Amino acid sequence: xxxxxxxxxxxxxxxxxxxxxxxxxxxxxxxxxxxxxxxxxxxxxxxxxxxxxxxxxxxxxxxxxxxxxxxxxxxxxxxxxxxxxxxxxxxxxxxxxxxxxxxxxxxxxxxxxxxxxxxxxxxxxxxxxxxxxxxxxxxxxxxxxxxxxxxxxxxxxxxxxxxxxxxxxxxxxxxxxxxxxxxxxxxxxxxxxxxxxxxxxxxxxxxxxxxxxx
Length: 214
Prior knowledge:
single chain, 2 domains, 6-stranded parallel β-sheet, 8 strands
């Protein structure tokens, strides 16, 4: 019996790719580096902001330059993170129906923790999240399972009663590492092939299909 559903954020709950791409391209251009097509960012994101900037920058830059661009991105994205971002079609309805069934929703993301409260209040004002965890100092990021363990500790739900929904191989690896059931979101940033290769236990093409699994 499912009692808790843990969601990835970028590419699962929210379509954030345009804002991530626009903000990264802005700081790249500002610092004299080439920009990328938005689709390229679907493979740059997923492992946190630090890795996003590493992937977007040339390999031969100095540490000082990297840190400068990273700082520029953090400041700019904090202001522009809601310019084009929106929940995926059917996501709010899905969350509301899970809530009505008494199933707890939670968030596990590599996005910086400090950005999450504003985002969740803005896009999901009626959802009572059981836990919202992002990238926190001294806590390893996904696919390390610690973020899931932290959610399980807060909610006191057994891992056998948990679904983990995400759109990347990193998410599927996180679920497997934590010992919870993995659900691949086909509406997100990555491909069905990637999710299958990452051994997703279930694949769903629309958020409302999640209701069939609970």
